[in-house]
Amino acid sequence: MIRNRGGSKAGAPPKCGSFSEPRGRRRAPVSAALTSLLLLVALASLGSCASLSQGARSGGPGVTPPPSFHLLDRDADYAALGIDRHVVAPREDGRRSPADSRHFEWWYFDALLEDGTTIVAWFGDNWPFGIGARTVSLEITPAGGATERWFGSYREKGSFGTDRADVRIGPHSFSGNLVDYHIFIDPAATGGQGIDLNLHGTVAAWRPASGVIAEGDDYFAWLAAVPEGEVSGSVTVEGATRQVRGSGYHDHNWGNISPAALMDSWWWGRATVGGHTVIASELRAAQDRGGGGAPLLFVGSPAGLDKEAWSSSQVEVIEGPPMRHPDPRHPRTIASWVRYSTADGFVATFPVTDRMITSTDLLDGQSPLIVGFARAFGLKPWYSRFLSPVSLALPGKEPQVAPGTLEYFEFR
Hints:
Blueprint: E1 2-4, H1 32-45, E2 70-71, H2 75-81, E3 104-113, E4 118-125, E5 134-141, E6 148-154, E7 159-160, E8 165-169, E9 172-176, E10 180-185, E11 194-203, E12 212-215, E13 218-237, E14 240-255, H3 259-262, E15 263-273, E16 276-285, E17 293-301, E18 304-309, E19 316-319, E20 322-324, E21 333-335, E22 337-341, E23 347-351, E24 356-361, H4 368-376, E25 382-393, E26 400-410
């Protein structure tokens, strides 16, 4: 196992306090996976990233979609995937892809504790994409404090259940059935940082259409297994364990291509506002993949679904005026906010703030060869996550505001 106490979001896919360097941080070694990721992006930029045939993608959607970046939503798509159009089954949170170098899969969890501490945990297979390793990462951010990060990469195969979420990587585990979950990261294996948490879902699992976003034979899939839930258990920081309570979220992604070869960027955010959970995202295809967007909006509560929308005809996405990125190292401007609205009156607005959870140059610490290669192709990959005062307006009602999370992932 390779351990990196300080860690880096370059090693884990993205999904609260002011910006600061994490304590104990040290740079990760140059990653062969990052090299291959950048190569994939460069080749895609040149229009040379050829898709494998559908026959070689045994974990793919099972039908050949039209050549555009969109959610699969035909009856034949659901039949090929073996899922119901309206009901999410526990097995959908189990392993969905083959265990090989052409597919990735990860299970993500975050929590906001009653004392203001934010937890982010992530379990992945074949990530970074193509490296063939299993990965576990943990971030613990006390209110107003510096983030403690740990990142572990395991060559052992681990185990991944298919009838429900049942992931075991090294001594760590992530298991559940769409309602009740247990997430455990062993502090004895991380240098003193760990979690032993239970998540009980209070808002039913949801996916936009089939959950599979495809372009040709390539796809990226998403399931919000627990849009909102209650969290209890213990957190360990620097060897000291305390009991905690709070709220949490869990989603699940998988696919057959590096997201960096499929997309230019994505926005993603979530919050619970006035008793309603809102999740919003827009995935933007690379120009050689059609350059379109896949927007989605979910609003729900323990009482049921309020609103779901997952195409540009159902939800409009507008960005606010550009502003300087709150991290002065960032080379580009960023939209001051992103807003999702529907014709029937649902409006969710996620402002960008200077309260950064993470701001990471994904080339930081890499070799001059990798940096030079990336710059030659104009690549500036960056991951940003912010605390955001999220505004949600329901039809005919005044907007309400509550703390939430907003992330922006720039792949290129």
